[in-house]
Amino acid sequence: MTDQHQGPPDRQPAPAPAGPAAPAGRSAYEAPGEAAHSATGERAGEGAGERAEERDERADARAEAKADAYADGNAEGAGGSEADGAVGLAGRGRRTLRTSLLVLAAATAVGAASVAATGAFGGQAKSAGTPRAAGPQKTVPVERTTLTRTETVDGTLGFGTPTTVQQAATGNQGNDGGAGGGGASGGGSAQQSGGNTGSSANGSQEAGIVTWLPEEGATLSRGDTVYSVDEDKVPLLYGSKPFYRTLRTGAKGDDVETLEKNLAELGYSGFTTDEEFTSGTAQAVRDWQDDMNREATGEVAPGDAVVASGERRVAEQRTSPGALAGGEALTWTGTDRIVEVELEAGLESLVKKGTKATIGLPDGGTARAEVTGIGTPSSAQKTSGSGQSSEDSGGGGADEATLPVELKVASQQKLGRYQAASVDVILKARTRKDVLAVPVNALLAEPGGGYAVETRGADGRSRRLPVRLGMFADGKVEVSGKGIEEGLDVGVPR
User: Fold this and answer.
1) Three-state DSSP class for 342?
2) What is the CA radius of gyration of the chain?
3) N or C: which terminal CB in the chain sees fewer CB atoms within 10 Å?
4) What pLDDT, in 10s, does the model give residues 9-32?
């Protein structure tokens, strides 16, 4: 039996070391085969080990001092074994901690080296002399195409500029050469006197009273009533110019043909549609007048109908039932929505009748359109209250000259529910046919200036080909240069 030194009566004896003391920097519990690994760890973590050793030395000194004090205060028979045991335990604990730190630092260093060697976080490792990865990761082919550059201008979607319907002057009715009104009215005009009665333009008859008007927004077709005076209906007829005289048997002219065409379209017959007003025409007129509850005279005076090019949409009432007749009845427009543009004078070469355009709507939709009308260029000169124009007073009116342009939209359905809106009008400005093009984001700026595209060479490595740039359009750019050909794959961002 191995002898054991007895400690103080109230403590258990401290166990003696089981073997020779472990070398510095190595745990007493390490297997012999781990020595080399620990030494490697010490070298790899030399900086961390030195700091840990200093902390351990200070801790050993404190433990030895406590052990000496304990030994002095106990019986000599204890033989100092308790103090030695305390010192041994403290020393082993500190050295174990120090060694663990060294091993951890070494393991970290070795792990980092392993990650770098295996490429765990970025593919295989590359030496300084290894070329970089081959070619661009995403490519598109160079294409042969037609590029069209466009010009976008502001436009207004609506029903067009309203025109005024003028009521006929009562006193002119029945005159063979009665004065015709302008535009779509087909009648003369008279000023309202503000009372219940009034005089006509020649003062020979009293003015009638407006008894009916269509609602704003209403659509009027051939034969529909435009307004009523003294309960006499004034209908809409289709034609290119208003009636300016009383039409009766024996009259000849294109206005007679206009009347006969309308009578035929309304279902009346017994005449030949030509430029001669015959008895058959007169009978058809009497039937028409009777159907409107008007006096059947067989003659048509200038104020008996309003002539317009087609269906009309009422924009605004300009009078009201009960007012004296003879003034403005209403304003109207066509029924199709159109686009109007005030084009800058410098862009007038982009448009002519028949020019195609694209309309950009507020919701992102588009519609095709065609130029149907071009007005006269006008300078936006404003006249002051003194009669002096802005140009005379130093303004730049001439610089604001515009050209009114009207476009017809091919499909009204494409316009959706928009009645009036600001739109974009996209006009073709320039076209380049049969050119090589790439996306604009395929261009790479060269250090010395200019541009290039990235391709994959025959050896699989990335290379840049300088390019000359042409026209830009639709997110693409025209390119040319040595090696640039249709179908060549060039790099673009992923």
Assistant:
1) strand
2) 51
3) N
4) 333 333 443 443 433 433 333 333
Instruction: Quickly tell me which residue has 């000194």 as its tokens.
Output: 61
Which residues, 6 or more positions from 364, have their beta carbon under 8 angstroms from its beta carbon? Answer: none
Distance CA 57, CA 95 (A): 9
CA distance 27 to 103: 11
Question: Looking at the predicted structure, is the pLDDT value of residue 254 above 70?
Answer: yes
Pick the closest to residue 174 from 348, 295, 263 (CA basis). Answer: 295
Helix (H) or strand (E) holding 115: helix 81-118
**Which two structure tokens, joined as six digits, stand for 90?**
């403290």
Q: Which residues contact 485 (CB under 8 A, 6 or more apart)?
A: 142, 436
CB 407, CB 436: distance < 8 Å: no
* pLDDT tens digits along 438-448: 999 999 999 98
How many whole angstroms separate alpha carbon 456 and alpha carbon 474? Answer: 26
How many angstroms separate the CA atoms of 172 and 177, rounded?
9
Beta strands in 125-281 (DSSP E): 139-141, 143-158, 163-166, 210-212, 219-220, 225-229, 232-238
